[in-house]
Fold this protein.
Amino acid sequence: MNPFQYSKPDSVQNAVHLAGPASRFIAGGTNLLDLMKENVTRPEHLIDITGLPLREVTETADGGLLIGALVSNADLAWHPLIEQRYPLLSQAILAGASPQLRNMASTGGNLLQRTRCYYFYDANVPCNKREPGSGCPAREGLNRIHAILGASAQCVATHPSDMCVALAALEAVVHVQGRGGARTIAFADFHRLPGETPERDNQLADDELITAIELPAAGFANHSHYLKVRDRASYAFALVSVAAALDMNGPVIRQARLVLGGVAHKPWRDQGVEDWLVGKAPSRETFSAAADALLQDAKPLEHNAFKVKLAHRAIVRALGDAAQGGQTR
Ligand SMILES: Cc1cc2nc3c(=O)[nH]c(=O)nc-3n(C[C@H](O)[C@H](O)[C@H](O)COP(=O)(O)OP(=O)(O)OC[C@H]3O[C@@H](n4cnc5c(N)ncnc54)[C@H](O)[C@@H]3O)c2cc1C
C-alpha cells in the first residue's frame, strides 16, 4: 500500500473542503481498501467520513424517505419502513455480499463501488478504466461476466451493485454536497455509460460528497421482486439481476419499472419498454415481449452470450413474481 494522509472531519462542509482529485472519502472501506491493497487506486489523502451525521432514515413531506449516506446496508435492508414500503430495496440489498460486509458497507459507498472486471483489478495488465488509453484486454479476453448492453470499444465492464438496481427502479434521487453547494441527481443520470471516458463511473465531481438518497413515495410494495442470478447461491456478484415493480389497476398494469443489473456499466433501464407494459394484463407472452424489447440491442462478447438468454428468462420470471405479489426473501 502507498503512503497517504488521513483526516477525519467532523462536518460535511469540512469534508468537502478537504476533497480534491488526489483524495478519496472512506466510509465502510469494504471496496476502497481492497482497491488500495491491490494498487488499483492510490489516493494521497483519505478523508474518513464515518464521523459525519449522515446515519438517519427520515420521512419526507411528500411521503418518501431520506436515507443518510452512512446508513449501513444492513440497517437499511432491515429498517421497518424499508421492509414495509420498499421491499424491492430490502430484497436487493440482502441479495448482495455477506452479513459482515453489509454491516460495514454504507449506502453512499454502495453507489460508488467499482467494477469487478478481472482486468481492472489486476494492476499488472492494461485497463482503460484504471489507466485511460492503455487498452481493454477484456474485449478479447475472459469476458464471461462483462457487459452485453451499452458497452464501448474502450470498456466492457459492468456495475456490480445490487442495491443500485432497485434504487434505479424506485427512481431514487442522489443528494450531493460540494464546495460550490448542494445539488440533486436523478438516479438514472447518476451512473454513466463508459463511452470514451470509462475511467469515470458517475457524474460526481472530485469534491462532491453523497449526503443522502431520497426515495419517492411510490414503493411498489404490493407487486415487486428482485431476482439475482449468480454462480453461487450466496456471496457472489450478479451475472444478471432484475428489479421488477408493477402498479396494478385491477387486472391490468398501471405502471411498470424494469431494471437489469450485471449487464451494463450502469443499471439498465428502458422507459419505452415500461410504457409499453402499461394497460396490458400480466402474462408470460407479454413479459416475454418486454424482455425481447429490453434486450434487442444486446451485443454479447465471446464468452457471455449466455447472459442474453439468462436475462430474458430472469425478466419473465421477475415480472411474473412481481405480478403475483412478489416473493418473500
Ligand atoms: C467480497 C465482497 C463481496 C461483495 N458482494 C457484493 C454483492 O454481491 N452485491 C453488491 O451490491 N455489492 C457487493 N459487494 C460490494 C459492497 O456492497 C461494497 O463494497 C460496499 O457497498 C461499499 O460501501 P463502503 O461504505 O464500504 O464503501 P467504501 O469502500 O468506503 O468506498 C467505496 C467508494 O465510495 C466512495 N464513497 C464512500 N462513501 C461516499 C460518500 N458518501 N460520498 C462520496 N463518495 C463516497 C469512496 O471514496 C470509494 O471510492 C461486495 C464486496 C466484497 C468485498
About this structure: The chain has a mean pLDDT of 97. Residues 224-323 form a domain with the Enolase-like; domain 1 fold (CATH 3.30.390.50). The first strand starts at residue 5 and ends at 7.
